[in-house]
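User: My instructor asked us to take a sequence, write out its structure as tokens, and then describe one feature of it. I'm not sure where to start. Here is the sequence I was given:
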Amino acid sequence: MIPPQPGAHIHLVGVGGTAMGALAGLLQEAGYRVSGSDTEVYPPISTLLAQLGVPVSSGYRAANLAPPPDLVVIGNALSRGNEEIEAVLDAKLPYASLPEVLRELFLRERETIVVAGTHGKTTVTSILAWIFHAAGLAPGFLIGGVPLDFPQSFSRGDGRYFLLEGDEYDTAFFDKGPKFLHYRPDAAVLTSVEFDHADIYSDLHAVQTAFKRLVNLVPRRGFIAAYAEAGTVQECLERAFCPVETFGLTQGQWQAREILVRPPSRDREGAGTFQGPTTEFVVECRGKRLGSLRARLFGEHNVLNILAAVAMASHYGVSWNQIAAAIETFQGVRRRLEAVGESGGVTVVDDFAHHPTAIRETVRAARARFPGRRLWALLEPRSNTLRRKVFEKELAEALAGADRVVLADVYRKEKLAEAERLAPESVAASLRARGVPAELHADADAIVDAIVPELRPGDVAIIMSNGGFGGIHAKLLAALPSRDRETPQHAESGVWGTP
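Assistant: Let's start with the prediction itself. The structure tokens for your sequence are:
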């Protein structure tokens, strides 16, 4: 790829993806003229692109390429047969993948820190970016989600460092290797390694091979912070050429101790302002107590996410006081146990669930975040892993921590053979056998109609999907006020902060 000069026209095919939308913003910041196309663009990316003033064509058509752009960036969700891609190839227009563009235009002259792993990438990258920002390091960053602490999920920055998620998913139809192999990391975080992306990886061994290749890219002068308590992660580190420090709850150089969740409390003047709920824990490094951290995140998985960021920031010389202050003010990431509203005394929470492990940890974190309240888990099997039968047993186990479970039909089930496809009825039957009430409904509208009469003040409805789930969040909130019910004493929990 020959990097175009600022002022050139760069067109993004598949601009509605989270990372592609962020790339559009980075390119515009760098002085390029940006346009895009997609079949479906919904918030928050549609909002972002509108704010940026990036013109977006609806649908994939050859006409979107007139006049011909100087470079076309092709998203990884698109394949041969797409009209716009075929037009690019027929006209011999210059094209590249998102990772190639990032590497050539934004990473080449920077110290690059890549956050990788099956789980936690978005949160750890967001925490690191906030720590570096609060420490005055002016980092560049690209986050595959929407952090609440920044106006956007990207920034060129003018400092030495660039922080970004390292996605193990494939790069483009013309490059089936993982995205993160393009980023030439100077340092990396490895949070976890599990079987995921069942549409492109055959088994856990194939996933580990991808992460081993990432580890093999970090230079001798580099650094890796990795999860200590998973053999799958440690196996990926066996041939690391750089220093490695590990983190965990009971193992590793970096450990968290005395984890405590504090409930909401009123301010000292008693004026009625709620300070509220937090997770507090002590950090030790090589057995030495460094101090306590207070965070607005919940669940052991988020304690580990914070530890990963602390280890990496410490390596780069950020002081303990700067780290602690940043952690205390870090607000979180959208769609990560995010309380999106409360109506009729029912709190509606949004979470980007994509894997049984993530679902299990979300439910556990909700127990800590909303103690004593009845938890409803509303799941749309939408990710390429959840849509398949491969984790059917594990999915039931993950959902069993909720009080009530509601399953939607498998997203685009017609695209999968029945023998390969998840059977929600089997998951529901397994849950009922465990004593957990579970029911099935076709879509968001049917779910809302079915559960609104059953919801009561104090309930928490956790909506889990890596997509829009038919707009169920707004539909549920709109349906609830029609209920004649008393607002409970939990009202502050639905609006304070966002884990």
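For the description part of your assignment, you could build on this observation: Confidence is low (pLDDT under 50) at residues 268-274, 484-499. Try explaining in your own words what that tells you about the chain.
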